[in-house]
Amino acid sequence: MIYLKAIGFSFVLMVLFGSCKHQVVISAEIFDPHCGGAPPSLVRSNRPLSSQIIIVCEKDSLVVALSDAGEAKIRLARGSYQWYQFSKSLTVEQTYAVVMEADRALFEFTGIPCIEQWKKTVDGVFSVDSDVDTLKLVLRSNCYSRLVPCLKYTGPNYE
Description:
By secondary structure, this protein is α+β, with helices and mostly antiparallel strands.
C-alpha cells in the first residue's frame, strides 16, 4: 500500500513539475534587408520590434507587449509555439486602410486575397523546454514597403 502511495505521489510530482512554466526573455528584432545602393557596413544591427506580438500554442494564445528595446519577460510552458506581429490581428478592412496610406505613385496594391493570406502566415516558430531562457525572434521586413503587406514597389513614375 505504501508503494502505491509513493508511486501515486511521484506521478503527481511529475505532472506538476512537467507542466510548469519557465520564465523566458523574448528579444524581438526587425531585419531590414539591403535593398541596393552602397553596401552596408559589416557591423549591421537589427532594430528592435517595440510593439506587441501574438504567441500561439496548441491550447492557448497570448499578446505580449514588448519594451522599446524589443524585450519582454514571460512565462511559457514547454512546447512548440508560433508567433505573429500584432498587426495581423487587425481586420482585413483595417489592414487595407493602412495599406492604402502608401504612396500610390510608388506602390501597387496586390489585392484583398493577399491581405487574407498574409494574416494567416506565421512570422516565426520556436520551442520552449527547460534549457531555454532566451528567445530571439526576428521579423524580416521587405525592401521599400517595410512591414506594410501586399504592396508591390513600382518605383517613381518619370514622365
